[in-house]
Give the backbone structure.
Amino acid sequence: MKSITVFCGSSNGTDNIFMEQAFQLGKTLAENNIGLVYGGAKVGLMGAVADGALSAGGSVTGVIPDFLRAKEIAHTGLTELLIVDSMHTRKMKMNELCEGVITLPGGYGTMEEFFEMLTWAQLGLHKKPIGILNTNGYYDAMITLVQTMVDKGFLKETYQDMILISDDIDTLLDKMKNYVAPTVGKWINKDEV
């Protein structure tokens, strides 16, 4: 993998481990010559993952909507900062620029980005690995919810298996490098999206 998009919060969270892991993830990506693509902000976990990659000489591409840049939260020290017109365009561009996705702790926006990438994979629109760095058990409740979706017949187990999970960065990267997307029939084609 040459580039990974990281979805994460614009807040620090309540435990220092969240910021520390975000920084370490960015640093590890750079040390493995994997470019970071992320939301372009300088605050919270977003800023930490970017700073981690930059600290190790990595390539960092931020993608930020103009209305957020105008609030002066854009990171000014990136390799490249792309300004887009909307949140949806941001997601499309981040998908276009990456070969995989890692999700760190975050709120509604992070969840929306994560689940949209999963939905696109389920529909066969991409075959990229989608990982969760489950720092300090942050996603345990969501993992349980996904199991409930399978148990209650709303999600096929093969789609549950698309979510790669670890609390260890290197283990997660190994899972992503060895990922093989499930064979799914396309319910729609890319031109219909």
About this structure: The radius of gyration is 16 Å. Strands lie at 3-7, 35-38, 60-65, 80-84, 101-103, 130-133, 163-166. The helical segments are 16-31, 44-55, 66-69, 87-97, 108-122, 140-151, 157-160, 169-177.
